[in-house]
Amino acid sequence: MNERILSISGKPGLYKLVSQGKNMLIVEELATGKRRPAYMRDKVMSLADIAMYTTEEDVPLYTIYNNISKLENGKAVDINALASDDDVREYFAKVLPDFDRDRVYTSDIRKALSWYNQLVAAGITAFVEEKTAESADTEG
């Protein structure tokens, strides 16, 4: 997954890193294309650095999004169909069967599904880790 896709704590939606300035980043909202600054005080995280807890080891978000994409045939998740918390957890168990049910909150799952839908709406559907894809090309 592209390391230039960012989440900014306290701000809705996802952002694409456009440029870096002194003491700030210039980001563009994926949904609207509006540009704005993100300052050093803002908690900015690349989606490539986010993972979810499982019973074994943490699983990177790009792996989860690959699984969702396969399950949904590359389309957005119908979040409205997942009305209750139990529905959300049951759906996520199809995506990541061994997720840690004690440490992964339903709100985390909902946010991950929302981000997935935002990425798909923005035309970002390649979720494979780039390093893995490159090494697969050189091995073959």
Explain this structure.
It is built from 4 helices and 7 strands; from the N terminus they run βββββββαααα. With 140 residues, the protein is an alpha+beta fold. Strands 4-3-2-1-5 form a 5-stranded antiparallel β-sheet. The longest helix has 16 residues. The protein is globular and about 45 Å long. The two termini are 22 Å apart.
- Count the E strands: 7
Helix content: 25-40%
Q: How would you sum up the global shape?
A: globular
- pLDDT below 50 for ≥5 consecutive residues: which ranges? 132-140
Strand content: 15-25%
Which features does this protein show?
140 residues, alpha+beta, two-stranded antiparallel sheet, 4 helices, 34% helix, 21% strand, globular, disordered C terminus
Topology record:
Layout: E1 5-8, E2 14-21, E3 24-29, E4 35-39, E5 44-46, E6 51-52, E7 59-60, H1 61-71, H2 85-95, H3 106-121, H4 130-139
